[in-house]
Amino acid sequence: MKIDRETLLDIYTRTMKVARADEKFRGLLAGGSLAVVYYTVRGQELVSAAMMAALEPSDYLVTTYRGQHDQIAKGVPLNLLFAEIAGKATGTCKGKGGSMHITHPDTGVMVTTGVVGSGLPIANGLALASQNRSDGRVTVTCFGDGATNIGAFHEAMNMARLWKLPVVFFCQNNRYGEHTAFADHTKVESIVARAAAYGMKGVQVDGNDAEAMYAVAKEAVDRARTGGGPTLIEAMCYRMMGHFFGADFSYMPKEHLAEMAAADPLPRLRALMLDYQFTEGELNAIVAGIDAEVEAAWTFAAGSPLPDANEIRKDVFEEEIAA
Ligand SMILES: Cc1ncc(C[n+]2csc(CCOP(=O)(O)OP(=O)(O)O)c2C)c(N)n1
Ligand SMILES: [Mg+2]
Q1: Residues pairing with 236 in the sheet
Q2: Residue 116: nearest ligand to its CA?
Q3: Which pLDDT score, from 0 to 100, does residue 320 have?
Q4: Where are the alpha helices (DSSP H) in the chain?
Q5: Which of 35, 96, 122, 171 lies deepest, with the highest CB count within 10 Å?
Q6: Which residue ranges have their beta carbon within 6 Å of ligand 1?
């Protein structure tokens, strides 16, 4: 299924921004310039690029600790993101949130949470607010395959369907929850099978197929925006490294590693771009521009101050507590 060239170019640009920033972070961590826990998004770049390309800038996003691809694809400025991950005062949350709590309402990134499954009911709350206000916004909530075994997933799915909330439940099935393979944590064959239990539309898609992923995302977003209620999307993808960067992943069987390498979304998307008559030169120029932006973001973050110790109680509660 074909999509228009402009949309594909948008998806490519978002994908490469995610990919280059992820590579930069891994380099900083491996080289010792940065010392934080980082959940790499290698292998999941395209799924969120295609999803976010189907949204309006004012739409809401709720994501997880493995959410950097979602945040970048949604539009969080790289300099603010890098600064937050480095714990600097110039970051999205003044350096107090870190990588697991990126929040940037200006680009619709309302919550990033490290509590597995907890984003879904929060997304319902945002969607209910949009429904009450008739503001036309759609909320997308991203989560992993493992999260679908948390009670909150089931409660949120039921409630969203009951109230026809403008929400998209976006499961990125990377086939592992921490160190546990999908078949060892879930006995239904697909996540999407669970949609039937809530009378909800569910679609499984090859998340590394840009055209199919975008078509599924767009249909779900349009359904939500036009009052048709929620959709469960299961985007099949791979977590191409360990649970967090630096973690051992020798428990992944050899066949799985081979399957994963063959499905790498980056060369596949590049080949698709060439099929759509974009030239190597055009693609290289896009990546060069992104690399410059990534370098500038790190320069900004590295040169920014740490938060002042006196700020520690600020922004925690609505009103500052007297010391
Ligand atoms: C409520 C809760 N239980 C357990 C954990 C520990 N934990 C962190 S990530 C994770 C795996 C989640 O797997 P999945 O939802 O597939 O997401 P992925 O990491 O693959 O993106 C677990 C169990 C947690 N953070 N929160
Ligand atoms: Mg997973």
Answers
A1: 173, 206
A2: 1
A3: 59
A4: 5-31, 45-53, 68-74, 78-85, 119-133, 151-162, 182-185, 210-225, 254-262, 265-275, 280-303
A5: 171
A6: 66, 114-116, 143-147, 174, 176-178, 239
Q: Of 116, 155, 190, which is best to mutate to test ligand 1, by the most ligand atoms within 8 angstroms of its C-beta?
A: 116
Digit-coded pLDDT (tens) for 192-227: 999 999 999 999 999 999 999 999 999 999 999 999
Q: Which two tokens stand for residue 95?
A: 């350096």
Instruction: Please state which CATH class domain 5-177+186-294 belongs to.
Output: alpha beta
pLDDT for the residue numbered 315? 83
CA distance 44 to 211: 15
| Backbone torsion region of residue 41, taken as left when φ is above 0, otherwise alpha when ψ lies between -120 and 50, otherwise beta | alpha
Is residue 194 exposed (0-12), middle (13-18) or buried (19+ Cβ within 10 Å)?
Answer: buried
- What is the arithmetic mean of pLDDT over 241-256? 96
Each residue's pLDDT tens digit, 166-191: 999 999 999 999 999 999 999 999 99
What residues pair up with 168 in beta bridges, in sequence order? 140, 231
Q: Which amino acid appears at position 264 of this protein? A: D
Residue 122 CA to ligand 2 center (angstroms) comes to 20
Q: Diameter of the chain by CA atoms? A: 62
Which pLDDT score is estimated for 318? 72
Domain extents in the chain: 5-177+186-294
What's the token pair of residue 159?
Answer: 């409630």
pTM reported for the whole predicted model: 0.97
Distance 116 CA to ligand 1 centre (A): 5
Q: What pLDDT, in 10s, does the model give residues 9-21?
A: 999 999 999 999 9
Cα distance between residue 263 and residue 213, in whole Å: 14
Q: How far is the CA of 2 from the centre of ligand 2 (A)?
A: 29
